[in-house]
Amino acid sequence: MRIFEIIILLTVTVLPFVKRRLLWRIPSNYVLIFLGIIMSLHLLLEGWRWQMFPAYLLFILLVWRIQAVDASNTVRLTFLRILGFVGLILVAFIAWLLPSVLPVFHLPEPRGAYAVGTESVYVQTDRDEIITQDPNDKRELMYKIWYPSQADVSSLDGDDYIDQASREGFATKYGLPPSALNYLDRVETYVHPGIPVADGNFPVLIFSHGYGSKATGYYALLTEIASQGYVIINMNHTYESLGTTFPDGRKKYFDYDFQREISANGMDAMYPLIDAFKNGLSYEERHPIVKKAVKEFYESQSVDRWAEDMIYTIDLLEQWNSGGTLKGHLDLNSIGVLGHSNGGGAAGKVPLLDNRVKAAANIDGITWGNLIDTTYQLPFLYVSADWPAEHEDVNSHIYNNKSTDYFYETKLLKSGHPNFMDIPFMIPVKSLAGTGEIDPYRGMEIVTRLVTSFFDKHLKGDQGANPESIGEQFEELEMKVYKGDSIQ
């Protein structure tokens, strides 16, 4: 919460219980002037938002009561007065709850040497769109590109936080009216549209989001990485993200009908896998069961689709490097892929299909499909959330052969699956957000340091970069490093 919001909430919570004693010592006009000042500062400097409406109601009632009260009279404690105080406590609880659950939050400030610019790019592909019902539809893709800049951004406004369609899709997912997320207009970002790209050329990272999540809901992660000298192509997998806003104003949302269609009876393939873990089978006994399940599970289809999107995007890089904002700024010999959740699974698939990728990172995703029993030929980083012991560790089978190069197997302790997104900042209530006990700012610092150190070493060729040192620096990060068949 913001400072004047906290002051208002403290005022409307405490003052009703002490106002009579206060008015014995301070004239009511002075108290009203104070209240007018804090409300004016809040509205002028912070702006109103609907989460504060219960507090505003209590504020109006407080002003009315201060004007009406006679401090010299003795007040008897009646049933109605007790009932009024109980009602006041209930409304005050709601007044504190709403802005706490949905705060105007602060994103982590990037630590890198560069400012961060952004540009949105629309591409009409010639590929058939299999998700829609119209057989003539061709796949459309929107990208949010993050890039390093040397511009002076001290006097510039930041990028709007999350596009409108993504907001609306998020609101729909949780049964809220779209206007419920208008307060996100007040979230300050450290990303600036349209500023020039920094001199030089930079490694390129293709980033893929989680299934049914906000494609642009990774400001903390991507802003930090871009500030360290990377161009990031933020994918938006149309109809499988929460929302896509096209330049002509059209909006496309997550296709729940398509999800129901492909997932019908989809868990049938998973029951043998779940039972194999639940019944305590050995790794060797489980492996053929897991191998069959991961190939048949319906999410393997989305991993394949998204990998195709990412490879199609790599095909565009040469064109983007020849003209437009990114002209001459892309190091096409240093291409990496990374993603979170389903996007992390797709990032694990791409390097097996495209040798232009030189390093890959999967952040808490499962690479469903036919990857199992294959071996990577490039540096690979796998970051896992701290799942409970009963969670099926499918990736221990999928990644059983590791890589002929470096393979980093890491776990962020006390984290949940959403800790790698902006969710822990947006909804700072762990039970609602599904996040872990780790402080969200510290968790994001660890992950961004790990990811940038990994790509610094394996894309930039920075001899001073050492991903293993991140595991040594932070006790919340478990790490095993493999090189070929041996553990380092």
Describe this structure in words.
This protein has 16 helices and 13 strands. By secondary structure, the chain is of the alpha/beta class. It folds into two domains: 3-101, no CATH class; 115-487, 3-Layer(aba) Sandwich (Rossmann fold). It has an eleven-stranded mixed beta sheet with strand order 3-1-2-5-4-8-9-10-11-12-13, with helices on both faces. Helix 11 (342-353) links the parallel strand 8 and strand 9 (357-363). Helix 1 (3-25) packs parallel to helix 3 (53-68). The chain is globular, with a radius of gyration of 26 Å. It starts with a helix and ends with a strand. It comes from Reichenbachiella ulvae. This is Platelet-activating factor acetylhydrolase. The chain crosses the membrane at residues 22-44, 50-66, 78-98.
Sum this structure up briefly:
The chain folds into 2 domains: 3-101, no CATH class; 115-487, Alpha/Beta hydrolase fold, catalytic domain (Rossmann fold, 3-Layer(aba) Sandwich), CATH 3.40.50.1820. It is of the alpha/beta class and 488 residues long. 41% of the residues lie in helices and 17% in strands.
